[in-house]
Amino acid sequence: MTLFERIKTTAKKRGYSLSKVSEKAGLGAKTIYKWKKQTPKTETLQAVANVLGVSVDYLLGNTDNPNSDNAGDKKIDIEDEHVIMTYQGKPIPKEDMEIIKRLLRGK
After folding, report:
1. CA–CA separation, 42 vs 65, rounded Å?
2. Which domain of life is it from (predicted)?
3. CATH number at residue 38
4. Is residue 71 part of a domain?
């Protein structure tokens, strides 16, 4: 099954059209349809995975477990500027990230 087919099938199971998934992920209405022939950026694919409630590995066909994360218990450094965190498929604004970081540090 291709990436596009997995997204389409998963969206249907969740009761979403591909246009609705694109909208919820903050993408253009036809963006996912382009993935029939081209590979999306990692952060864009992550946004779609977040909307669908599955892992990127599942969408890529690396696992048949929708909730699987091959990274296991990989820890991320919230201070790393290259780490992209999202909420409902949209990037978290910098000012909100500062609040989240303070809460996680317990300060």
Report:
1. 19
2. Bacteria
3. 1.10.260.40
4. no
Report DSSP letters for 26-60, one per residue.
T--TTHHHHTTTSPPPHHHHHHHHHHHTS-HHHHH
Asked whether residue 103 is assigned to any structural domain, the reply reads no
Identify the burial level of 55 via C-beta atoms within 10 angstroms of its C-beta, where 0-12 means exposed, 13-18 middle and 19 or more buried: buried
DSSP 8-state secondary structure symbol assigned to residue 77: -
d(CA 69, CA 12): 22
- DSSP structural state of residue 6: H
Q: How many domains does the chain have?
A: 1
pTM of the model: 0.62
Domain boundaries, position 48: 3-60
